[in-house]
Structures are given as C-alpha cells and as structure tokens.
Design goal:
By secondary structure, the chain is mainly α. The protein is built from 3 helices and 2 strands, in the order ββααα. It has a two-stranded antiparallel sheet with strand order 1-2. The radius of gyration is 18 Å and the shape is elongated.
Length: about 100
C-alpha cells in the first residue's frame, strides 16, 4: 500500500514521488534560471563588484532591504523547485519546509 505521493513502481521516471521531468518543463527551466540569477545577485550584493559596495539604494535601510529581499528569495526559490520535483507546487508540505528553513538557527 503506497502513501500519497509515494509510488511503488519505478516506471516512468517517478521514484518515490520524485518527478525529475518537471525540472525540464518550461516552468522548471525558468525556475532553475531564476535560481542561477538569484545566486549571482546574492553574491554581488554581499561581496560587491570590483571593490565597489552594492547599491540597492542611497541609505543604509534601502541597502539592507535589498540584501534581505535577495536573501529571502534565495530561500523561496529552492523550495519552489523542490515543489516542482515533488510534483506538489506550494502545498502545505512546502510551506512547512519553508517555515522550518526560516526558523532553523
């Protein structure tokens, strides 16, 4: 007897509820590209470029807001990609994983 999301057969590329074909759809490819851009933006925001500090705005508050937004998106995007792989986009399981990642110290 299989649970919801867990299959007993390995035919069709679906192993234990993991569907890697979802990554190669248009939505999955855009999310992978988005993750690459978010990682690049995060590194530029934290390190800067050629010795110049990152500029998200004029004040320190605007800079912090930009860095925290990019950092938050760096958490949200992989959770959405996991949802695509598990073939359950933004279900209660993914919300629970997101909350766990945010509360983890």
């Amino acid at each position: 007897r299989a649970f919801k999301g867990v299959t007993s057969s390995t035919t069709g590329g679906n192993i234990m509820g993991v569907d890697l074909k979802g990554l190669f759809s248009i939505h999955g490819l855009f999310k992978i590209f988005e993750l690459v851009l978010v990682v690049i933006t995060f590194l530029l925001a934290r390190i800067g470029y050629a010795g110049n500090p990152p500029l998200f705005g004029i004040t320190v508050d605007e800079t912090w807001l930009g860095q925290l937004t990019v950092g938050g998106w760096l958490i949200i995007t992989p959770v959405i990609i996991v949802g695509i792989v598990l073939d359950e986009p933004m279900s209660w399981k993914l919300v629970r994983m997101l909350i766990f990642c945010m509360l983890r110290k």
